[in-house]
Design goal:
- The chain is α/β, with parallel strands linked by helices and 309 residues long.
- Helices cover 48% and strands 17% of the residues.
- The protein has a 7-stranded mixed β-sheet, with helices on both faces. The chain has a two-stranded antiparallel ribbon with strand order 1-2.
- Helix 3 packs across helix 4 and helix 5 crosses helix 7.
- It is elongated.
Length: 309
């Protein structure tokens, strides 16, 4: 990899992280502001302020006016007044960099930084950025596995994008997520008219569904937790029902090994699993006709099992 590629690939995140840590980001959000004022208020050198502000402007995060530099809409996710689900992925990316700088210690101890409410807010905002076309492809893949489901359970539905797409297609959908997530997004769920239940998929799920789905959730589970989730999903289904979760499968996705490293920094047990491991866990949970399929046009695979009649 060339030096230019390294700069292009990583510098924006590192620069935004440094701007946040020094207070330069707050100055920019309160702008317009000139480099000398940023240097004085943030406690950085004037050279650092001049170079950093110019680079942020070149990256599209800042604009220049007669009064100096001010944040563009690309940084609205850092403004407290921005609606939670409109804040985008950027604040979560900066948090991820924080975690990566702890990777040597995490490798040695296996202990991850404590999860916080602020971190959960940023994570939910990031989850809400899933592309609409990806949502449609996930739902379509599930419907290929189980056509025209009447009752759908969306496990770990979070912001509700999968739920709303199933509902748009005529299904009666219930969303279940962890209590902190349900509480955080309560007003948004109520505004969208979603049927949401607080619960933990590793401990149990509501029952009586034709289709149980989850997207981008299971990589935080240990093998034992994954097995428990599959067993609970089996119990949640009516006879003849179908289960599908979407994830990056170790031997099917180009990103799976890298994502496994990411999971080291955020989960004490999370991992990416192989197709054989998924099929084995599904079979032991009681599913038949198991399959792992690529979700067209996405980076994900669908892991599918059917509950016998």
């Amino acid at each position: 990899m060339s030096e230019e590629a390294i700069y292009d690939k990583h510098l924006d995140v590192f620069l935004l992280w440094a701007a946040r840590e020094t207070g330069m980001l707050d100055e920019l959000l309160d702008g317009p502001v000139d480099p000398a004022t940023v240097a004085e208020n943030a406690g950085v050198t004037e050279r650092a302020a001049e170079v950093s502000l110019a680079a942020l402007a070149d990256m599209g995060y800042a604009g220049q006016t007669d009064g100096g530099y001010e944040a563009t809409g690309e940084l609205d996710g850092f403004r407290p007044e921005t609606d939670l689900l409109d804040r985008g992925i950027l604040p979560h990316r900066i948090d991820s960099l924080d975690h990566y700088t702890n990777l040597p210690e995490i490798m040695q101890t296996g202990e991850i930084p404590e999860h916080t409410e602020a971190g959960l807010r940023k994570y939910m905002a990031a989850m809400a950025t899933i592309d609409d076309s990806t949502v449609r492809e996930i739902v379509t893949t599930a419907e290929h596995a189980h056509p025209r489901p009447d009752r759908v359970l969306d496990v770990g539905g979070g912001p509700g994008k999968i739920t709303k797409e199933f509902r748009r297609r005529g299904a009666d959908v219930t969303t279940v997520d962890l209590p902190p997530v349900v509480e955080l997004l309560r007003s948004q769920h109520e505004e969208d008219g979603l049927d949401v239940v607080a619960g933990d998929a590793r401990e149990g799920l509501p029952t009586g569904f034709d289709l149980v789905v989850s997207a981008r959730m299971i990589l935080s589970f240990s093998p034992e937790e994954l097995q428990g989730y599959f067993e609970n999903a089996h119990e949640a289904l009516n006879p003849g029902g179908t289960f599908m979760c979407t994830e990056r499968v170790w031997d099917r996705s180009e990103m799976a090994t890298r994502f496994a490293v990411h999971m080291l920094t955020v989960s004490p047990t999370g991992h990416t699993y192989t197709e054989a491991e998924y099929r084995d866990a599904l079979g032991r949970a009681g599913f038949e006709d198991t399959d792992v399929v690529d979700v067209p046009g996405t980076a994900f695979q669908g892991i599918i099992g059917h509950r016998p009649e």
